[in-house]
Amino acid sequence: MASNKYFYQVLGVQSNANQDEIKQAFHKLAHKYHPDTSTEPNAEQKFQDINEAYTALRNKKPVNKKRSKLPIIAAAIVGITSLVAIISFFYQNSFNTQEIQTGILNHNSEAIHSLENANINFAKKVISGTGVKVALIDFYLKNPPLWKKLDSYHNSIRTNILKDDQVYRRLRDHYYHQIDNEIKEDKFKKAMPLLGEIKKAYPKKSELFHKYQQIQEKKQQRLAAMTQKYMDCLYKTWVPLLERTHCMVDARDTIKTVGIEHDLPIDANLPAMYAKEVRLALKDQNYDHADDILLDWEKLLPANSGQRDVLKDLLYLRRERENIVVDLSGNDKMQVAKRLHQLSADPVLQQQILEIAKVKNNILKYQFNDLLTIIASNYGEMSPNNESKLREILEIPEEVEDEDKTIVANTPIAIPIPIQTTATEEVKTNNKTDTLLTECQQLYNKNYLTRGKNTALSCYRKVLKIEPNNNQALDGLNNIENKYYVWADSNLRKNKFGRVKFYIQALQKFNSNSSRLTGLKEKLNAAQRQTVAEANQATKVKEAAKLARLKVSKEKAVKEREARLKADKERAAKRRSARYKVAKAKVAKERAAKRKTANAKAAKERAAKRKVARAKAAQERAAKRKLARAKAANERKAAKRKAARAKAAQERAAKRKVARAKAAQERAAKRKVARAKAANERRAAKRKAARAKAAQERRAKRKADRRAKAAKASAARRKAARAKAIKERAAARRKAKRKRKAAKKKAAKRKNAKRKRGASCSRLVRQMSTGIKPLTSKQRAYFRRRCR
């Protein structure tokens, strides 16, 4: 078990720290390393260590180092402390409860951590406060995970919190809001687990079941709509390919987000359509469009496709056209062979590139058979069709080109002798024989000797079948044998042993009894031995020269390394000696200072020890007397408490036994009542459902009747309103007409009255100014009323 010193170190406090300091340090560290909120490494282990340290030190009294050697005094103080603790327990308990409740209502994390670490009874008192449960749930919703933190409480505390109606409404509103947001974004896969979390806590809530059914209905409706969209996109064959496939991908992604249990249908013609579109893009040299189509193909149809891989290779070759031309125009034989092998996959590009003059001339520098050998050894045998196609493009005949030009001067070659025929023989000669001999001579000149379908050998043999003693045909066969011998001898001089073997095999097949075969074979063996010996000798010379160079370079490197090491050692020795001198002087100064400080400290400690020893002896004598009295009193009290505890334990055991029997009877009765109640509830639920169904049908019927009646009444009202409106408009028109007539009459009346009165101010003024005609009484009154 860890010591208290370790626990003080874990909490980061002094060994003489009081309870407030220990509590404050615990809350601070618990908030920092709580596994649900902390991002520190090993937070869970540190949180356990902090809890263990706080549990061990929570009821410990601080240790005073100066008094640590006085166990007797400490023991005397224990009794007084216990009495004070008993007196103040209830006050402190009620004060801590109110303080924690206030902290939880204010979302104080320290108060909530205190609740999490409290015992069951104290936690029940805390959560019984008004609004405390809802405030606790609100805090956990803002600082998840909610359910993990609730599970950390005792089952009775967790059940008490979740049973509250306000807590249920708060959790329901929170989860409904999150679920609705997920559904708006078509994320039904996330909405269902959210509903499952609250359903797990409240499995008997019917509204949660209805919410589950609503989500399922919305999901099915959304899936139906998006599936229809996917099918519409799939069968829109008249729109461009990329537009169609992008529409399908969008619909597919939405369906996958919503969630579907089966695979979506794929149009079997899509791969062919993609391939056609890619080939058209390659033909138009629109390589970016081809790349987009291939990516879209792979995105919509992710399964492996050999056709798609072939098109990718073609696209790569088309984009590499310039690099291929450069490589085929270069001097790297291996690179030329590699590019020829790659071009065999794309006949169109092969035809275009190999018809370039500089490429063709560069390839013709090399022996074509050597290139075929490199291709076969590195990439596999080239098919006969590809080889023939390549020969045809490069205009290389089946035989080695220009072999017939290399003729040794001293080798006898049979020259065709013109046939001297008599008149009788010319009559006997058949036109067919002459034609065959001409064709044979042409084949011989083109070097079509023995390989292929139509050769000089087969041609001469046809002539000999017609005329077995035809001298020209016999000379032709002899010339073929001579030409093979010349080619073999020429290649033997050039050390081309493969071609020599080929010509020896041809001679052996043509005439196995030829006298020249033995000589050629002996020359070939001697030349091969000589070439091998020369190659071995050259290799030995090269290796000896290489070893000599390596030896010289190694010796030079060893000397340079030894020189560097020696210089490094000398520099290191100088630095060490300098540091050693400095360190020696520093150590000497420190020792002198330490000795001086130690002497002064030792003198002070001796004086302090003497003083402490005197005080300690006096305190020990007083403490012994006081402890003796306290010990006697404590023993008496302990005996009384022991007897009281034994009696109380017996009474509690008897009460527990009676309570258990009573609880068992009550549980049995409750189970019986619950079964009967459940049966009644099931029967009542069936009856209620039947009544509800009948009432619903009656309501639907009444509602339909009311709607029909209301429709008739509204039609009648609209008809009456139209008639009334027509009457009111006619009345209004008549009234307006009467008003206009009355206004006209009134205006005419006023005009006539004015004319009669002659009541014009200007006229009266003129009449008064002239004085010819005096004013009447009416004119004067009018003047006074209107003209002043």
Describe this protein's structure.
This protein is mainly α. Among the domains are: 4-164, Helix Hairpins (Orthogonal Bundle); 403-414 and 429-514, Serine Threonine Protein Phosphatase 5, Tetratricopeptide repeat (Alpha Horseshoe); 758-788, no CATH class. The protein is 80% helix and 0% strand. It contains 30 helices and no strands. It has helices at residues 4-11, 19-33, 43-57, 71-105, 109-117, 120-127, 132-142, 146-151, 155-163, 165-184, 188-201, 206-234, 241-258, 270-283, 287-300, 306-319, 321-328, 333-343, 347-354, 357-363, 368-379, 384-394, 423-428, 431-445, 456-466, 471-493, 497-510, 516-757, 761-770, 777-786. The termini are far apart. The relative contact order is 0.02. Mean pLDDT is 78; it is low at 62-76, 82-95 and 399-429.
Rounded Rg? 59 Å
Helix content: over 70%
| CATH architecture assignment of the domain at 4-164 | Orthogonal Bundle
Determine the structural class based on helices, strands and strand pairing.
Answer: mainly alpha
Number of helices: 30
Mean pLDDT: 78
Which blocks of ≥5 consecutive residues have pLDDT under 50? 62-76, 82-95, 399-429
What does the main sheet amount to?
none
CATH superfamily of the domain at 4-164: DnaJ domain
Order of helices and strands: HHHHHHHHHHHHHHHHHHHHHHHHHHHHHH
DSSP strand content:
under 5%
